Automatic annotation (TrEMBL):
Keyword presence, Transferase: no
Protein name: ABC transporter, ATP-binding protein
Regions that span the bilayer: none
Superkingdom per UniProt: Bacteria
Lineage of the organism: Bacteria, Pseudomonadati, Bacteroidota, Flavobacteriia, Flavobacteriales
Keywords from the named record: ATP-binding, Nucleotide-binding
Listed CDD domains: ABC_FeS_Assembly
Provenance organism: Zhouia amylolytica AD3
């Protein structure tokens, strides 16, 4: 589904990603861990096509197509979803209207008609129930005055509605209380299928108890320095990144 080959990217004169290789297949869940500033958010931004970052070398191939030059909207329309670490506020646009627009734009890009209102309503009801989202919440202005947990819940709602092929969740556990963590993980787990893949960026082993990854990768200074199964997250939690740095003598 997603193949990243020798990816180098940065901003102006600063190299941030220094040769990333990653293969994500349908049905898999990958976790990316790593210390602050190691390049995790940059990697997700580059996959999503944020224009402030420049790819200087390497390829991002999604569903057999090199997407290096694709605009963010094109990538979204092709089924890549990125949850933002710092979501934007859009006063006057409700949670529901935002998602309706997003769904219909994707349909338009695929040459489909707008989703009929009753179908949309049904989908909204179904997904908000799945994620235990209150009706009142759906008519609030997007991200305006949202608590950290509410922002995250909204992102997962967007993901559930859009049903992306590849979902990248950056720091989904930051600011989530125990209940919200469970609801979000539940949402992700319910979205998991043999055709979809999820990349979760997290600092905490705890999240990975709920969303059990098939692979864990450690990003250090712009490179994936170690990959393993879910037990790698436990080992990191126990020993910290210094252990890994020493082991790799970097
Ligand atoms: N837009 C930007 N402008 C300047 N520097 C940037 C920008 N984006 C990223 N960087 C730098 O690139 C490095 C990697 O940042 P990034 O946000 O990818 O780290 P991270 O692994 O997500 O960290 P955290 O765990 O704190 O979220 C940092 O040194 C950061 O300051
Ligand atoms: Mg980050």
């Amino acid at each position: 589904m997603l193949t990243i080959k020798n990816l180098h990217a940065g901003i102006e004169e600063k190299d941030i990603l220094k040769g990333i290789n990653l293969q994500v297949n349908p049905g898999e869940v990958h976790a990316i861990m790593g210390p602050n500033g190691s390049g995790k958010s940059t990697l997700s931004s580059v996959i999503a096509g944020k224009e402030e970052y420049e790819v200087t070398e390497g390829d991002i191939v999604f569903e057999g197509e090199n997407i290096n030059e694709f605009a963010p909207e094109e990538r979204a329309h092709n089924g890549i979803f990125l949850s933002f670490q710092y979501p934007v506020e859009i006063p006057g646009v409700t949670v529901t209207n935002f998602i309706k627009t997003a769904i219909n734009e994707t349909r338009k890009a695929r040459g489909l008609e707008e989703m009929p209102a009753n179908e949309m309503l049904k989908l909204i009801r179904e997904k908000s129930e799945l994620l235990e989202i209150d009706r009142k919440f759906l008519s609030r202005s997007l991200n305006e005055g949202f608590s950290g947990g509410e922002k995250k819940r909204n992102e997962i709602f967007q993901m559930a509605m859009l049903e992306p092929k590849l979902a990248i969740l950056d720091e989904t556990d930051s600011g989530l209380d125990i209940d919200a963590l469970r609801i979000v993980s539940n949402g992700v787990n319910k979205l998991r299928s043999k055709d979809n893949a999820v990349v979760v960026i997290t600092h905490y082993q705890r999240l990975l108890e709920y969303i059990v990854p098939d692979f864990v990768h450690v990003l250090l200074d712009g490179k994936i320095v170690k990959s393993g199964g879910k037990e790698l997250a436990l080992e990191l939690e126990e020993k910290g990144y210094d252990w890994l740095k020493q082991e790799l003598s970097v």
